[in-house]
Specification:
This protein is mainly alpha-helical and about 280 residues long. It has 2 domains: about 1-40; about 55-280, MetI-like fold (Orthogonal Bundle). Helix content is about 80%, strand content about 0%. The protein has helices at about 5-50, 55-60, 65-95, 105-115, 120-130, 135-140, 150-175, 180-185, 190-200, 205-220, 225-230, 240-245, 250-280. Helix 3 packs parallel to helix 7, helix 4 crosses helix 7 (about 150-175) and helix 7 runs antiparallel to helix 10 (about 205-220). The longest helix has about 45 residues, at about 5-50. The chain is globular and about 65 Å long.
Length: about 280
């Protein structure tokens, strides 16, 4: 007795075979694209580590230009991050909890430095606070000069890094259940007490991750800094500017500074992931 498949069974068999084949093809294609993308990202970074020996790396760290850039970068990035947190936290809290006329405009202006080209940001700061700027010309009458000073470095970093903290802080505040705040108010807590004792502690993980991102952005700032603060060793030459300068004559120093920034960037991403994971 010969068993034959019905047309429906034959269609399902053939269709199932094609489905398995297409799944295999898509899996291989996805794996190939993922491998190419990872290779494109990791190969340039790995090349930095392959082009310099550990001895050359340690030797470059003792050079004055490297030491000056390291110390200046960490100091200015830390100061700018503190400023961003102090002034950005109230702004983010108000925008997250209050509905007022012009809030969308404030949010747009807050996010503007993210999409603004760094060179444009630096030129704008120079036109505002430079010696002949809109504000700087009046400060110059009192002997106060901001452009091409360490203060200019901090201002440039604050300008470009603040949106990274404010956006994260606002999202963190919006994620806090307002029931906790309402309960505190019914018990007689003032708005300041509610913010300090309820809202900010509950949003702490998001605020920390935002501050870390802001610090990393400030540490890697280049365009606005060189336009507004210049490139003077020990005064305005941060690590990105030192890389640009030293690669023309001392490649080992440029690679060493680049490796440091790569390690910091990796550490920042890991720290943000850890903080965010703890939030949940």
């Amino acid at each position: 007795m010969v068993l034959t498949q019905s047309p429906a069974e034959h269609w399902r068999s053939a269709h199932g075979g094609r489905t398995v084949l297409w799944r295999a093809v898509l899996t291989l294609l996805t794996a190939a694209l993922l491998a190419l993308f990872l290779l494109f990202i990791t190969l340039p970074v790995a090349s930095l580590f392959l082009r310099i020996s550990p001895e050359e790396f340690l030797s470059s760290l003792t050079e004055p230009v490297v030491l000056d850039a390291l110390s200046l970068s960490f100091v200015t990035a830390t100061v700018s991050t503190v400023i961003v947190v102090l002034f950005g936290t109230p702004l983010a809290l108000v925008n997250a909890r209050r509905d007022y006329r012009g809030r969308e405009l404030v949010d747009t202006l807050t996010d503007l430095p993210i999409v603004l080209p760094p060179a444009v940001a630096g030129l704008a700061l120079l036109m505002a606070f430079g010696r002949r700027g809109v504000v700087g010309q009046y400060l110059d009458l009192f002997g106060i000069q901001i452009g091409f000073t360490t203060l200019a470095v901090v201002m440039a970093q604050v300008f470009v890094a603040s949106p990274f903290y404010i956006r994260q802080a606002r999202a963190s505040f919006e994620a806090v259940d307002s029931l906790y705040e309402d309960a505190a108010r019914t018990l007689g807590a003032s708005p300041g007490t509610v913010a300090l004792r309820i809202t900010i502690p509950l949003a702490q993980a998001g605020l920390v991750s935002g501050a870390i991102l802001s610090f990393a952005r400030a540490l890697g700032e280049f365009g606005a800094t060189i336009m507004f603060a210049g490139n003077f060793q020990g005064r305005t030459q941060t690590m990105p500017l030192a890389i640009y300068t030293t690669m023309q004559g001392d490649m080992n120093a440029a690679i060493s500074l680049s490796i440091i920034l790569v390690v910091i960037s990796f550490a920042v991403i890991s720290a943000v992931k850890i903080v965010t994971r703890r939030k949940y």
